[in-house]
Amino acid sequence: MTQQQGPAMIEAQGLSKYFGDFAAIKDISFQVHQGEVVAFLGPNGAGKSTTMKLLTGYLAPSAGTSRIAGHDMSSDRLAGLARLGYLPENGPLYPDMTPRALLSFFADARGMSRRRKRERIDAVVELCSLGSVIGKPIGKLSRGYRQRAGMAQVLLHEPDVLILDEPTAGLDPNQIHEVRETIRKLGRSKTILLSTHILQEVEAMAGRVLFINEGRLTFDGPIEDFTKGGRPLDERFRELTAV
Description:
Layout: E1 8-19, E2 22-33, E3 37-41, H1 48-56, E4 63-68, E5 71-72, H2 77-82, E6 84-87, H3 99-109, H4 114-127, H5 143-155, E7 161-165, H6 173-186, E8 191-195, H7 200-205, E9 208-213, E10 216-222, H8 223-227, H9 233-240
Parallel strand pairs: 3-8, 3-9, 6-7, 7-8
Antiparallel strand pairs: 1-2, 1-4, 4-5, 9-10
């Protein structure tokens, strides 16, 4: 069971989002504490990606508040973003750029000094195992390497908080293993909220589960409670989504 190791680094307080009359999420509240790796589960269309966009400030809530490292993402978003690394599903990359050029571009955009830029690019290239493709156009890379390039960009500024939306979607088994290993390493020092629909990733990477269905949070607890003493994850998933 994951223990709370510090302050709340990700907070949702009464979050709701409406698109016209449609409620994408309704009154969602939870906290992710420093040092936790939490899996965010639910069926397609349940509201996972919408919640993540609200948490990161990419969408404005219809009601409620989101905070990253204590910063209100509506009123103090830039300070929150300085502490946050966000990897959206199918995140945008520049296909004509190489990974090195991409990382250099974002380092300059963040105002890094030349020395820090060099140190951080070297660090994330090693962490994400990009050395063999560092000079190849991103558009020519496999999906696995493109995902690594996206992860490297997310980690470039050493954020304390990571929000990852389906980071292994579309990858082959070897690539999934590599991404899982990277996330495990990051979990030693970061606070991570990980959205996934691959149930095996829950046991492989997370200590706690948030489960959302039809826009509402229906479970929040440790993995041991979610599986109720060893029950199959797919059985529990069906139980929580039963109509």
